[in-house]
């Protein structure tokens, strides 16, 4: 493969053919002018270009992780899905303990397994309330948790 042009977006510089999902990878660090530090993690559920999460499951898991993760840390800034539907980005402020990030994710995914509904799954609180799958979100969480011991291994 020819050398790729350096891009502004970190993930566009990642060789997606070399990673081995599932994993949790520090994808970026930004320092604010007042010293606050944001760390962005690439939480990859699916092997890029081989598999993906179906949109209703991706959407429901986004709602659930965004809501439930905040029960385990007050450092969560945001959790959002990747457009390629293979995972999520999680941003935390002033938190640099990778092991704790893994623990927060594990606790959050365990919350997904016992949830009886998708939070904010209605037309008032969601922009596409018809596109959800509680069971799809649970299945994705189950698969990710089953490989918990592999989360730190990013490259094949």
Structural class: alpha+beta
- The percentage of residues in β strands lies in 15-25%
> N-to-C terminal Cα separation, in Å?
18 Å
User: Biggest sheet, in brief?
Assistant: 4 strands, antiparallel
Description:
The chain has 156 residues and is of the alpha+beta class. 29% of the residues lie in helices and 19% in strands. It has helices at 55-69, 98-114, 134-146, and strands spanning 23-31, 37-44, 76-81, 87-93. It has a 4-stranded antiparallel β-sheet with strand order 1-2-4-3, with helices on one face. Strand 3 and strand 4 form a beta hairpin. Helix 1 crosses helix 3 (134-146) and helix 2 (98-114) crosses helix 3. The mean pLDDT is 96.
Could you provide a short overview of the structure?
This protein has 3 helices and 4 strands; from the N terminus they run ββαββαα.
Observed structural traits:
156 residues, alpha+beta, four-stranded antiparallel β-sheet, globular
Break the fold down into its secondary structure elements and pairings:
Layout: E1 23-31, E2 37-44, H1 55-69, E3 76-81, E4 87-93, H2 98-114, H3 134-146
Antiparallel strand pairs: 1-2, 2-4, 3-4
Helix pairs in contact: 1-2, 1-3, 2-3
